[in-house]
Task: inverse folding
């Protein structure tokens, strides 16, 4: 990202204040958008991989599908490096050129999406912020204009870091990005922007047919009144049953605060009520069952046995076909029932293939990829399943990463700029020494002249 022109220092005072202010604002806007976009992608590599794969399938580039995981890590790294470089004024020529190179691809792509709606959501900001395709195109158009402005005027305003240490800033940014992305891939995202967050209560997506959810209409003396099941009047008192209707809240199970509807079926029959009957529940999620390694079956079966020993019900949930489910059950010797759900719901509930979700009283308590659970933990008799998520502290880890990254930037800045503070001290000291030397020489010269006389 470096070039000889990047190292040219601006001539102080050669540009109007207005240009300098606009350059600083443009750095914050353009760089800030790239930082935010890269951050939310790095937080959730699985989600980024799903979106990249969706693009590849839509564009007919199926052969590149195997590289979707690489793109899921490469995209946030590139965006964060460019974003941070622009914000701090590093690589003032190369960074805007990098943005323009990306926009040369993204502008036509987002214009095509806006006109065809081939992919409903561009996924630019992951699940954190969903934009329409036209809004995405407009955003990319403004970013292009901002990058052109910075390419022309950006070098007129000095950056925060000097050219000698800019590579250190980029290295620290790369390390911080990977520190955020790797836990998101191997365990779960450090920030969950999806609907099925911890503490969410699962409810059935089907309207309840309980009598409690109906209002009963009775008539007496030509007037009709509605009653709940608990207050139905006695017909011996002259009341006549007319009709019944569903209560207004009966058909909105997912509208309850802190809850999320889940739709699962068993051979075409709704099974959500059966699933949510258990007090404690362990869900094994298989968003892509044919791609699950048979090597995982040992850990899954051990975990299933541990759950049943503790009175925890176990269900598998997948979007696979009946034939694929039958093949998996036969090969893995699965002793748990397999239910079917929509592919997007499975992927939103937890990341991983497979992933594990633990619920207590229909409420999500923890979730993680199966690969993040070691065999030693499963065989630990003292550790109950409700405590299996105790080692996952996403907020604490994210806070530590942010602190170390900020400290790294401060150290780099101090090392880079200390000479600006120290140099004047040495300059004043050297000036005093020079003046004292000159004075001494003059005195010695005068003394010699007097002696000669």
Result:
């Amino acid at each position: 990202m470096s070039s000889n022109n990047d190292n040219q220092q601006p001539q102080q005072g050669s540009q109007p204040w207005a240009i300098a202010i606009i350059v600083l604002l443009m750095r914050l806007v353009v760089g800030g958008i790239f930082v935010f976009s890269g951050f939310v992608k790095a937080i959730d590599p699985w989600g980024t991989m799903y979106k990249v794969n969706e693009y590849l399938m839509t564009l007919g580039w199926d052969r590149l599908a195997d590289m979707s995981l690489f793109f899921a890590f490469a995209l946030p790294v590139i965006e964060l490096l460019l974003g941070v470089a622009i914000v701090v004024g590093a690589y003032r020529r190369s960074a805007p050129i990098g943005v323009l190179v990306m926009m040369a691809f993204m502008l036509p792509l987002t214009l095509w999406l806006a006109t065809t709606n081939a992919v409903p959501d561009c996924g630019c900001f992951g699940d954190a912020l969903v934009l329409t395709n036209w809004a995405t195109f407009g955003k990319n158009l403004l970013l292009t204009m901002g990058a052109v402005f910075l390419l022309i005027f950006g070098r007129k305003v000095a950056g925060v870091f000097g050219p000698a240490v800019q590579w250190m800033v980029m290295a620290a940014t790369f390390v911080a990005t990977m520190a955020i992305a790797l836990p998101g891939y191997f365990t779960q995202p450090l920030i969950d922007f999806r609907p099925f967050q911890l503490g969410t209560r699962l409810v059935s997506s089907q309207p309840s047919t309980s009598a409690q959810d109906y209002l009963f209409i009775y008539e007496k003396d030509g007037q009709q009144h509605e009653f709940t099941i608990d207050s139905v009047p006695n017909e011996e008192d002259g009341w006549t049953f007319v009709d019944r209707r569903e209560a207004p809240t009966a058909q909105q199970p997912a509208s309850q605060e802190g809850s999320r509807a889940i739709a699962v079926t068993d051979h075409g029959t709704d099974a959500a009520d059966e699933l949510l009957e258990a007090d404690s529940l362990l869900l094994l999620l298989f968003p892509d069952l044919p791609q699950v390694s048979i090597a995982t079956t040992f850990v899954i079966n051990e975990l299933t046995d541990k759950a049943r020993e503790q009175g925890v019900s176990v269900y598998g949930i997948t979007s696979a076909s009946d034939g694929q489910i039958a093949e998996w059950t036969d090969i893995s010797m699965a002793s748990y029932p397999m239910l079917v759900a929509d592919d997007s719901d499975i992927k939103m509930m937890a990341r991983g293939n497979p992933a594990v979700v633990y619920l207590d009283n229909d409420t999500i308590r923890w979730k993680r990829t199966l690969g993040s659970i070691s065999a030693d933990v499963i065989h630990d008799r003292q550790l109950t399943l409700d405590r299996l998520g105790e080692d996952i502290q996403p907020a604490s880890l994210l806070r530590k990463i942010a602190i170390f990254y900020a400290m790294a930037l401060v150290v780099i800045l101090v090392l880079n700029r200390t000479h600006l503070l120290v140099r004047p001290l040495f300059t004043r000291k050297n000036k005093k020494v020079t003046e004292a030397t000159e004075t001494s020489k003059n005195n010695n010269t005068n003394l010699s002249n007097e002696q000669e006389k």
Notes: The first strand starts at residue 201 and ends at 204.
